[in-house]
Design a protein that fits this description.
alpha+beta; 2 helices
Length: about 140
Protein backbone atom coordinates (compact mmCIF):
# COMPACT_ATOMS: atom_id res chain seq x y z
CA UNK A 1 0.00 0.00 0.00
CA UNK A 2 1.28 3.47 -0.87
CA UNK A 3 0.74 6.77 0.90
CA UNK A 4 -1.89 8.90 -0.84
CA UNK A 5 -1.65 11.96 1.44
CA UNK A 6 0.89 14.10 -0.43
CA UNK A 7 -0.53 13.45 -3.94
CA UNK A 8 -4.05 14.20 -2.65
CA UNK A 9 -2.89 17.41 -0.96
CA UNK A 10 -1.26 18.50 -4.24
CA UNK A 11 -4.47 17.75 -6.17
CA UNK A 12 -6.60 19.72 -3.69
CA UNK A 13 -4.20 22.66 -3.70
CA UNK A 14 -4.25 22.79 -7.51
CA UNK A 15 -8.06 22.58 -7.66
CA UNK A 16 -8.72 25.10 -4.87
CA UNK A 17 -6.06 27.61 -5.99
CA UNK A 18 -8.12 28.37 -9.10
CA UNK A 19 -11.00 29.79 -7.03
CA UNK A 20 -11.75 33.51 -7.23
CA UNK A 21 -14.28 35.78 -5.55
CA UNK A 22 -15.08 39.30 -6.66
CA UNK A 23 -12.31 39.12 -9.25
CA UNK A 24 -9.64 38.27 -6.68
CA UNK A 25 -7.96 34.93 -6.04
CA UNK A 26 -9.02 33.30 -2.79
CA UNK A 27 -5.88 32.30 -0.86
CA UNK A 28 -5.55 28.59 -0.09
CA UNK A 29 -3.54 27.15 2.78
CA UNK A 30 -2.84 23.67 4.05
CA UNK A 31 -3.57 23.03 7.73
CA UNK A 32 -3.34 26.61 9.08
CA UNK A 33 -3.29 30.29 8.26
CA UNK A 34 0.30 31.58 8.12
CA UNK A 35 1.32 34.05 10.85
CA UNK A 36 0.81 37.73 10.06
CA UNK A 37 -1.65 36.86 7.26
CA UNK A 38 -5.16 38.33 7.53
CA UNK A 39 -7.14 37.95 4.29
CA UNK A 40 -10.89 38.68 4.34
CA UNK A 41 -11.69 35.40 2.57
CA UNK A 42 -9.55 32.27 2.50
CA UNK A 43 -9.64 28.49 2.32
CA UNK A 44 -7.87 26.02 4.58
CA UNK A 45 -7.84 22.32 3.79
CA UNK A 46 -6.88 20.13 6.70
CA UNK A 47 -4.81 16.97 7.09
CA UNK A 48 -5.94 13.85 5.28
CA UNK A 49 -7.71 11.05 7.15
CA UNK A 50 -7.46 7.49 5.76
CA UNK A 51 -9.14 4.18 6.47
CA UNK A 52 -7.96 1.00 4.75
CA UNK A 53 -10.63 -0.46 2.47
CA UNK A 54 -8.44 -3.04 0.73
CA UNK A 55 -9.73 -6.34 -0.60
CA UNK A 56 -7.84 -9.44 -1.75
CA UNK A 57 -7.83 -7.98 -5.26
CA UNK A 58 -7.07 -4.30 -4.60
CA UNK A 59 -5.41 -1.81 -2.29
CA UNK A 60 -7.95 0.91 -1.51
CA UNK A 61 -8.50 3.61 1.06
CA UNK A 62 -11.49 5.63 2.15
CA UNK A 63 -9.89 9.05 2.43
CA UNK A 64 -11.40 12.23 3.84
CA UNK A 65 -10.39 15.86 3.40
CA UNK A 66 -11.86 18.77 5.33
CA UNK A 67 -12.13 22.08 3.49
CA UNK A 68 -13.07 25.19 5.47
CA UNK A 69 -13.96 28.56 3.96
CA UNK A 70 -13.38 31.53 6.26
CA UNK A 71 -14.91 34.95 5.61
CA UNK A 72 -14.97 38.24 7.44
CA UNK A 73 -16.65 41.52 6.62
CA UNK A 74 -18.24 44.48 8.36
CA UNK A 75 -21.39 43.91 10.38
CA UNK A 76 -23.47 43.67 7.18
CA UNK A 77 -21.90 40.27 6.30
CA UNK A 78 -24.86 38.25 5.04
CA UNK A 79 -22.75 35.19 4.22
CA UNK A 80 -22.78 35.69 0.45
CA UNK A 81 -18.99 35.45 0.12
CA UNK A 82 -18.92 32.25 2.15
CA UNK A 83 -21.67 30.60 0.12
CA UNK A 84 -20.26 31.75 -3.24
CA UNK A 85 -16.76 30.51 -2.40
CA UNK A 86 -18.16 27.20 -1.12
CA UNK A 87 -20.06 26.82 -4.38
CA UNK A 88 -16.74 27.24 -6.17
CA UNK A 89 -15.15 24.63 -3.88
CA UNK A 90 -17.92 22.17 -4.75
CA UNK A 91 -17.42 22.90 -8.45
CA UNK A 92 -13.67 22.36 -8.12
CA UNK A 93 -13.83 19.07 -6.20
CA UNK A 94 -16.99 17.48 -7.64
CA UNK A 95 -18.55 19.59 -10.40
CA UNK A 96 -20.83 16.80 -11.67
CA UNK A 97 -22.07 13.47 -10.35
CA UNK A 98 -19.50 10.83 -11.08
CA UNK A 99 -16.61 13.31 -11.39
CA UNK A 100 -13.51 12.49 -9.34
CA UNK A 101 -10.52 14.70 -8.66
CA UNK A 102 -7.35 13.59 -10.45
CA UNK A 103 -4.64 12.36 -8.07
CA UNK A 104 -1.24 11.53 -9.55
CA UNK A 105 -0.47 7.77 -9.55
CA UNK A 106 -3.83 6.91 -7.95
CA UNK A 107 -7.36 6.38 -9.21
CA UNK A 108 -10.21 8.04 -7.36
CA UNK A 109 -13.18 5.69 -7.70
CA UNK A 110 -15.85 7.67 -5.88
CA UNK A 111 -16.26 11.12 -4.30
CA UNK A 112 -18.92 12.18 -1.78
CA UNK A 113 -19.63 15.31 0.20
CA UNK A 114 -20.11 13.68 3.61
CA UNK A 115 -20.61 16.84 5.67
CA UNK A 116 -21.41 20.50 5.05
CA UNK A 117 -21.77 22.72 8.10
CA UNK A 118 -22.00 26.49 8.39
CA UNK A 119 -20.56 27.57 11.72
CA UNK A 120 -22.42 29.96 13.98
CA UNK A 121 -21.75 33.59 13.13
CA UNK A 122 -19.17 35.25 15.37
CA UNK A 123 -18.42 38.93 15.83
CA UNK A 124 -15.40 40.87 16.99
CA UNK A 125 -15.15 44.65 17.05
CA UNK A 126 -16.84 45.78 13.82
CA UNK A 127 -16.36 42.49 11.93
CA UNK A 128 -18.67 39.54 11.39
CA UNK A 129 -17.11 36.13 10.69
CA UNK A 130 -18.91 33.36 8.80
CA UNK A 131 -17.19 30.01 8.24
CA UNK A 132 -18.33 26.83 6.51
CA UNK A 133 -16.80 23.36 6.81
CA UNK A 134 -17.14 20.74 4.07
CA UNK A 135 -15.81 17.20 4.31
CA UNK A 136 -15.19 15.21 1.15
CA UNK A 137 -14.64 11.46 1.20
CA UNK A 138 -12.93 9.62 -1.63
CA UNK A 139 -12.59 5.94 -2.35
CA UNK A 140 -9.08 5.74 -3.77
CA UNK A 141 -7.53 2.81 -5.59
CA UNK A 142 -3.77 2.43 -5.29
CA UNK A 143 -2.56 1.62 -8.83
Amino acid sequence: MRDVNKPLRKAYYAALSAITYGGDSVPVYYSELPAATHPDNYIIFRPVSNTDESTKQSADTSTSMQVTVFTKKDLNNAGNACDDICGSVLSAIMPTPGYNITVEDFQVIHTRLTSDLTQEVSMSAQLKYIDRIMVFTHLIYHK
